[in-house]
Amino acid sequence: MGYCGEHTAVKGNVDVAVAVTLRCKAWTCPECADGRKRQLIAQGIGGTPNKFLTLTTRRVEGMTPEEAAKRLSYAWRLCRLRVMRHYKMKRLPFLAIMERHKSGWPHLHLLLRAKWIDQKLLSNWMKELADGPNVWIEHLDQAHKAVVYCSKYCSKCVQKIGSAKRYWQSRDYDLREKPEPKIKFAAGEGWEMWPLDLYHMANNWLQMGYKVEWLSSDKIQRMNTLDPPT
Q: Is residue 21 helix, strand or coil?
């Protein structure tokens, strides 16, 4: 997206104005990709997973990797229901991440918070649902091991394969406290888009004699230079 970080949304009146940097938040954007990865890593760690599961599907003649990714996603949804029913679980929190293997074929990696799940049982179900008997499940017995897996699979393996999602999670996976809602803006609510990045916009206001403050998640800082706030 060409506007990413280069345009600012501004809303204000005579006394106070608010400016927000416009970001596309796309995985393919060089400005936003690193931030998206950091968010996903934090999301993975935030679920305090104790199991790591990898699901595969066998190559089928005439099937594309995109079709295989959809098949794998659907198989996991059914497999999860079977696991919950078999072990009488009320919930099975998970974060699922799609990976395109170097061969081009998809794998599905999952961070879980669950008790014992039998690997052979999973293999039998996945063979039936997606012709994918190769199932790997590992217990994450130490907190730092979970962090390592989250950092590896949440940053390097997130890929878009056809219409399948890059990643998705159950609503009860992330245990972190929800952050305060961010400033939102919409057309027709007094917001205007300016073709300046946030720092140049603030500098213009300083030169006009206005007081400028940075509002971040932890503090407000007076701006006197073009350098970003720390």
A: strand
DSSP 95: E
Q: 82, 75 in Cβ contact below 8 A?
A: no
Rounded Cα distance between 83 and 99, Å, is 23
Q: How far apart are CA 93 and CA 228, in angstroms?
A: 38
Torsion 110-116-118-121 (CA) sign: negative
Average pLDDT over the chain reads 81
Element spanning 200, H or E: helix 198-207
Per DSSP, helices labelled H in 17-118 are 33-46, 65-86
Domains and CATH numbers, the chain: 48-169 (3.30.70.1910)
Q: What is the pTM of this model?
A: 0.73
Cα-atom radius of gyration of the chain, to the nearest Å?
23
